[in-house]
Every structure is written in C-alpha cells, then in structure tokens.
Specification:
- The protein has a single domain, classed as archaeoglobus fulgidus dsm 4304 superfamily (archaeoglobus fulgidus dsm 4304 fold, 2-Layer Sandwich).
- It has five helices and nine strands.
- The protein has helices at 4-17, 69-80, 103-111, 170-180, 188-202, and strands at residues 24-33, 36-45, 48-58, 87-91, 114-119, 128-131, 137-142, 145-151, 160-166.
- It has a nine-stranded mixed sheet with strand order 3-2-1-4-5-9-8-7-6, sandwiched between helices.
- Strand 2 (36-45) and strand 3 form a beta hairpin.
Length: 203
C-alpha cells in the first residue's frame, strides 16, 4: 500500500496508463568509478530499439544505505527529463523498501510515469514468500502486504527481485517483466542500459 500523501498522484498516473499498452519502454542504469558516473537511457518503441542516450559527469553524493535515491535520482532525472516514456525499468528498489520509497518510486513520482524496480537483493528486513501460481515467481510480502516478487528462473543460481515503482500494479509489473525478459533475467531495456553504462564508464 502506498502512503497516503502519494495516493492521489499514484492513482492519477495509474489511471492514465490503465488498459493501455505501453509502447515506449525504457531502461536506465548508472555506472560509477569513484566520483565519476556514466548514465545510459535505452528506449524501445513498438518493441524496436529507438534511442540510446548517454550522460557522463561527477556525483559527490555519498552512498547511504536505504537512501540510494539521494545519489542516483538526480542523475537519472537529468537524463530522462523531457523524454516521452510509458514505462521505465530502473535498477533499484520500488515500494519494497524501508520507507516504501525506493529509487524507482522516487523517479516515477518525480516524473509522473510508470516505473518498475529491479534489484539483485532485498534491502534488510523480514519478508515472507507466497506462491504466485507462476512456477518461477514468488510474491515477496511484509506484514501480509505484497510488495514485489522474487523471480527464480531455474537456469540462474540467484533470483532477481521485481517491484512496482510508481503508478503500476504488481500484476502489470509481472506481465511487463515477462514480456521484456527476453535474454536472461533482466528486462531487455535495462540489460542493454547496464552494458552501455559499464562500457562508457570503462572507456
């Protein structure tokens, strides 16, 4: 459940995209080396690669546990500002977060777009897994509230965690993930963004 102050905007964004197929899908990732960063936005339109956008710069914001959005949200916001995006995959947490405001939630709230968070681990906390009816997916719940999923594809040793970020239901989050996880366990726009971010950071 989203905290009350966000209810109105969450519902407004969710309603805007309700029942509509997301045609412009993006993934964003940031790679760091000391204070330097390389950020990449990959955009697909009608399932075809449309654009690759890159930004490089300096970030002096330190990493803080559970407050990663303070470091990365300004970098991502700068990169996606003015872009037309129906759904954005973010390398970070969504509502499954100690404050219910992970990076994906902050980005979606700031820009009024649907966002989904992908992470390799859960932020510390007590969670339970609930069967979803899908053989590779279990719901991640806390206090009986479903906050995300663990995707356990058999050929991969470790699961990937998937969360609603902003303005999107858990069911739609899962459906969009299954549609875009074409070459492994990471959705294609985010997978390519990660590759390019590493490449630009190392060049």
């Amino acid at each position: 459940m989203v905290p009350y102050p966000l209810d109105f905007l969450w519902e407004k964004v969710e309603k805007k995209y309700s029942g509509e197929e997301a045609k412009t899908i993006s993934g964003v990732d940031v790679s760091y080396r000391d204070e330097k960063y390389a950020a990449v936005l990959i955009t697909f339109e009608d399932e075809k690669l449309k654009d690759i956008k890159v930004d490089q710069g300096i970030s002096n914001e330190p990493y803080r546990s559970s407050l990663f959005f303070l470091k990365e949200a300004p970098v991502i916001s700068k990169l996606i500002y003015g872009e037309s995006i129906d759904l954005l995959f973010v390398n970070g947490h969504g509502i499954c977060h100690p404050y219910l405001y992970g990076l994906a939630t902050v980005i979606g709230l700031t820009h009024g777009i649907l966002t989904t968070g992908i992470a390799q681990r859960l932020i510390s906390g007590t969670y339970e897994e609930i069967e979803s009816g899908h053989p590779d997916i279990a719901y991640i719940a806390q206090n009986q509230s479903k906050l995300g999923t663990a995707v356990k594809i058999r050929k991969f040793k470790k699961p990937v965690y998937l969360f609603p970020g902003f303005g999107i239901t858990l069911n739609r989050t899962i459906n969009e993930y299954l549609k875009w996880a074409k070459n492994g366990k990471i959705p294609e726009p985010l997978r390519i963004a990660h590759i390019y971010a590493k490449r630009y950071m190392n060049s």
